[in-house]
Amino acid sequence: MPGKEPFTIEDILKKPQIQKITDDVSADMVERRAYMPAVCRVFSSPYTTLKEQNQYKFDIDKEARALLPGIINNKVQAIAGIDSPDESFRENYCKKRIIGIVFSGGPAPGGHNVIAGLYDAAKKANPESKIYGFLLGPDGIIENETVELTESMVNAYRNLGGFGMIKTGRTKIDTKAKMALSKETCRRLGLNALVIVGGDDSNTNAAFLAQEMFEDGIQVIGVPKTIDGDLQVRDADGNVLCAISFGFHSAARSFSNDISNLCSDSSSDVKYWHICKVMGRVASHLALEVELQTHANLGFIGEELADYIDEERIKKSKEIDYTAYGMTLRHLSRVICKGIVRRAAAGKNYGVMIVPEGILEFINEIEVFIIKLNTIIAEYNSSHDTDFHTDFPTLEEKQEYLRRLARRSREEGSFSIWNTRDDDLFNDLPEFFQEGLLTERDAHGNFQFSLVETEKVLMGLVRDYLDELKEQGVYKLGIEDAYYRKTLEKAGLDPDFFGPILFTNYGKEKYLIVKPTIMSIKTLEQELAKKGAIRKDEKIPAAIEKIYKKSVPSFKTQIHFYGYDGRGSDPTRFDCNYAYNLGLTVFSLIANGATGQMAAIKNVEKNFSRWEPIGIPIAPLMHLEERKGKLTLVLERALVDLNSPAFQVAKAFREKWLAATPGEDRFRRPGPIRFAGKSEEDRPITLVLNDLGGSSE
Ligand code: FBP
């Protein structure tokens, strides 16, 4: 090139500025790593102690009492700061400890800060203490795969997302053999304490491990983690002990930022409906928070579908009509279409819709299939040496097995979990959906909703019904009155003459709706001829044809899945602070001899100054639930409470956010995740609403 010095790529790569901008460590990462999370007041004392809180009561399950005798009488413990403890307390608190920590289940932003908090507190109490990270989740415990955490490792991940430092996995320590191997690992490492950062199943595991190692004096502490937000804890009187797990806020904010960008794209390009499936295996907490953050046009919460009652159907039917209770997929598609048709009438053939990942769990017919198939697969696996998916690798072979079950139930006439009716209904579903319902369950026996293309099934039904509505002349795109006038006047036609012929609401509304009887060029021609606007065989004026064509909507969608991206996002300031304080809480529990407790922060729904680190006893929270076709002791998953202020507020605003009226949409832009800066919100909207809505503040 003339005037330019010749260069080689080696020369370019040597330039410091080029090295800086191509470095793996971005400026944002540098700032994040240097950020020091705020700590709860109690942690400004050099030592902490535990104070039993007897005011919190739990309904204890008989089975939990029998299986977890060593930890069933644990109480809620408040962490309190002490400045000058006596010598024996100080000695015990500061003794050298060996602590192991593991991540279990899906990643959640903030996990590294739990490790950082624990590491800082343990090293502050005694620099000789060692912290081991178990690699790749619970497998690391079973197989004794560890890494000793160092200052530089911990510093490299402070305030950063993912679980990259030690990775994670979904293995469950659920057999005697795995339990024995885990115990052996803890003994070999000389662990004083094991910390399990995980969801409901993992904390259940933590309780069983705590019991198993009770006699050996190895403490086990759980830390509630899941982006799904379904691990919440209340006592028997409804007092909130853990309002949400860490990771929820960051995932919700990450999804919301992306979805709000779609809102602005959609209202600029005005041609797509963006269908956004939002993670949350069962509960719709994330979908609700995203709805509140973005004001998307249509939002659905799985839990409300299960509660749905079709009043019209009840009025019409003379006898009890059970099908009126709960929503079917078909009915849901009708509700969606109603919103789409209403927006189209206001000239908006575009929008953004939020569908929770776990929505199928709340749809009557699908829920029944999931439960039945879970049981069939679990029963098969427990009565055979191999497993269902290995023995029946293809959909055809699986279908054949189900057919055999149905046949057997008919021939023997006895009760069977799978009968001919189930088989017929199942075979009516599209193949990819059948395949989805038969996918391999995860290690906990959970149906893997993230693998099923829920939105595809739903959108198939929506599309079919919109076509029907189009044929009935109901799905029309409203034409702005001013545009109609301008177009006709430009063509030398009288808008007031053609208006009443073409539209149902001419002169009455800003957006004009073409009459339902005008559904094609043919019917338009007939209508014009009937009203004497054109002679028989005369061509339709081009301007009129143009207006008609504009009124025919085409339904175009873009489908998105928000899940893994948000799960791996960097934490919000809320999650940075929350998770770091959880890490500090873990150490306080360990240093004070607790076991079978879950570290938590009470009042995260309130202002930071009111946060209270506590220990929650896990065993008293456990109850029997059907898992993998068997009654099992587990922690209850919290669903969206339809009476909660957060849900009620979202519901109250839905009509406004649908914006099926002329004028701007009501989208909200939450902005990207930040961990510093004045404009960063200090907690999830759901928590603020539930807190303010339930109090007199
Ligand atoms: P955890 O409950 O383990 O935190 O995981 C939740 C989740 O992110 C769900 O929202 C989602 O359905 C699931 O994990 C996906 O799991 P996988 O990593 O196995 O695809």
Explain what the structure shows.
The protein has 697 residues and is α/β, with parallel strands linked by helices. Among the domains are: 278 residues, Rossmann fold (3-Layer(aba) Sandwich), CATH 3.40.50.450; 76 residues, no CATH class. The protein contains 29 helices and 19 strands. A nine-stranded mixed sheet has the order 1-2-17-16-7-6-3-4-5, sandwiched between helices. The chain has a four-stranded parallel sheet with strand order 11-12-10-15, with helices on both faces. A hairpin with a 5-residue loop joins β8 and β9. The radius of gyration is 30 Å and the shape is globular. It starts with 8 loop residues before the first helix and ends with a helix. The structure holds 1,6-di-O-phosphono-beta-D-fructofuranose. 1,6-di-O-phosphono-beta-D-fructofuranose (FBP) binds next to loops.
